[in-house]
Input
Amino acid sequence: MTKAVPADILSRLKAVLGDGGWSQDPERLAPKLLEWRDRWTGTTPFLALPKTTADVAAVVGVCFEAGVAITPQGGNTGLVGGQIPQGEILLSTERLGAIREVETFDDVIVAEAGVTLARVHEAAAAVRRRFPLGLASEGTATVGGVVSTNAGGTQVLRYGSTRSLVLGLEAVLPNGEVWNGLKHLRKDNTGYDLKQLLIGAEGTLGVVTAASLKLYPVLASRAVAMAGVPSPQAALHLLEQAKAEAGGAVEAFELMGRQGVDFALKNIPGTRDPLEEVHPWYVLAEFSSGEPGSAEAAMERFLTHGLEAGLIADAVVAQTDAQAKALWLIRENQSPAQKPEGATWKHDVSVPVSRVADFLDQATAAMLAFAPGSRIAGFGHMGDGNIHYDVLRPDGGDDAAHAARRDEGSRIVHDIVMSMGGSISAEHGLGSMKTAEAARYKSPVELHALKAIRAALDPKRIMNPRVLF
Amino acid sequence: MTKAVPADILSRLKAVLGDGGWSQDPERLAPKLLEWRDRWTGTTPFLALPKTTADVAAVVGVCFEAGVAITPQGGNTGLVGGQIPQGEILLSTERLGAIREVETFDDVIVAEAGVTLARVHEAAAAVRRRFPLGLASEGTATVGGVVSTNAGGTQVLRYGSTRSLVLGLEAVLPNGEVWNGLKHLRKDNTGYDLKQLLIGAEGTLGVVTAASLKLYPVLASRAVAMAGVPSPQAALHLLEQAKAEAGGAVEAFELMGRQGVDFALKNIPGTRDPLEEVHPWYVLAEFSSGEPGSAEAAMERFLTHGLEAGLIADAVVAQTDAQAKALWLIRENQSPAQKPEGATWKHDVSVPVSRVADFLDQATAAMLAFAPGSRIAGFGHMGDGNIHYDVLRPDGGDDAAHAARRDEGSRIVHDIVMSMGGSISAEHGLGSMKTAEAARYKSPVELHALKAIRAALDPKRIMNPRVLF
Output
């Protein structure tokens, strides 16, 4: 457990932050101490609200000297408890809100940690550019948060995770020093890439205060289609065809089981069944291209071949943006649509793309044996091998009884994932939720190396001490 | 200086490697001790020729225990001295030559460190895939080498450096332990990404023994053109147009000054002047697409608009693969074509794309003031802001006199680069050549962090101790 923070340290923090720069008001703190799915609630003696990088450095400096722990928080959209303090100082980046620079020749935007992803999208659009990181939570998720968790989302297949989209970082390291690595460079081979270490470090190696992010051209053509498919195995073959037909133009290739589609139709207003008949699985594919008409042509070839080969039972192509949005609405609400259905064991796993179908088969057989009657919603980014595999209590079952078996059930799922060379956290991170699981599955060689790196950069372990390992 | 290696250590190394697994034969060693531009020659008491990862682990384990230093070497194509031992044990990866796996659903190839880049290309082509890392030295450069130096090349604009193309690594860490991180995963957020630290570490954090590399679809259309342009500033505007016209389809956007084209025409057999008239600068652009005809159409739009806007004076589009090859021949021989011209100061620098033209202006003015009559060949990957900026002695000048002023001249160039937020090594690395320069330009905060990481993973500093920092 975290030690109590001495009163003189709080006084020093108040002094360096000044009026408006901190809070101990329970009402101000409350929304920052509650995880949005209500899974974690936190406590903190002090909320730091730095306005500048120098403020952040001052806070971390005071805490480093005194050995006082800090939990950094962005938009509080994390799903693994990493941003919820348990007695630590809470450092919110919400006031680090400037977009410092937009440079179109460099195709770079420099945004501070507290800028939301949606604001980055708007700023990019204003100069006819695009920042290709899309999250359901983009109106709330912040730059500091997506960088610190290496966020994924729906466009990883084409553009990679956040890691691939960052050209430079500014961060306050655990000793309170400011590292200015805010470059606009596409190439820089001058030793270890420190930013790569901070990306996905979940705040354990310092506080990211700003990032240089890559911008891309606005695309001239886009095609979105939903296809009913007989099986994940068929979807796998379709994915290979899509990549071949569309070259680099496959923007998203998402898989959903019918159970999840049913939840969306039942619980999310405005959704409607995308195809006339009911299909066991659905593929939502999006192609895009810089060439007018090119994405549409590739989509037509793809669907025609898929229908001819019997890999697709039926399909619909969005004819308007509104229709495309309606198709995406079903996909993006796969998780929210589960909320009214009761207790669930959620898994954010990845396996090699070639093993997605095997994974779904094996995991579902194991879950139905372990928890008969469970309702299984498997969906996700098939193109990346990333499946959100959620096991809900039986219809009319008991929430508490289901929740009580979560760890045991998840262990079975994770064992299957690891037997396939997969990952127990594809895009959400480890946070405080999966530290024990990570310790179980990571090799001692790797754990030893990762801990040595952490100790080297944060010898007093003040940065988010409860998370990772 | 490196200490002499005790005889009993050499005996132990011979024992673990067995017959054929080592050499002390000067003739066998000679080609591995000479850098290809003859700039560095090395010495070593012992060449280790491990055949397996276990062999590598045994060698590193013996050396770690005894505190004996090791220099790893791949294809010996490095340009900054990092692979040339100065008294250390030389560990060559040449016998780690297996392609362990090619998986088309995962779009992954797993190759051992000693496999050449050309063999990776062949293996990819055999399954109708593509590994988009192209280097002039690809027939000799190896997987371990390109990973350890985060090699760049001509396709970074579209696909990123080697860092973006690696899905997993296997490596022997400095303590002799084997880290198996050979995943096929596109997404894995379970803590610090150890492979990112090893990529570009120039052998200082361990020996990369194998890599999982990303494969891409073979492309359906390709267009290559050479344009004569009035200035780098015009080229900058053209680059922005190319990105807008071609969406994600700009594969390469290279800039060359006439001086370098002249060297190629004079010294490289088979080259011919690409355009009727002489132009001060040339852009070599390559577009590609998964859609048949798409790249060609985008290229036509791009050239038409460029000519109309006065940004292009004249242009030629390759009509055949042979013509495309002929255009690339001029670009790829920019460096070899300099060799008969005498002493040169070479720089592998990057600046923000928006500053490339400024950099060329400022650097050339400074060089002509500092070394009047110098012949300046500036060329490179304009799309990445990466310029190879080479300053040759005056025609008929004295090689030794020019070489003697190299450090002073390079300092001027590097100071200009750094004043623009650039990098003194865009793609070649620091090696032993640029350690002092790196120490000069990196911030103390960053240097301190990087050294702490190195010490944490290699407490005895046995891995390539002369390089980086």
Remarks:
- Chain B has 17 helices and 19 strands.
- The two ends of chain B are 15 Å apart (CA to CA).
- The first strand of chain B starts at residue 22 and ends at 23.
- The mean pLDDT of chain B is 96.
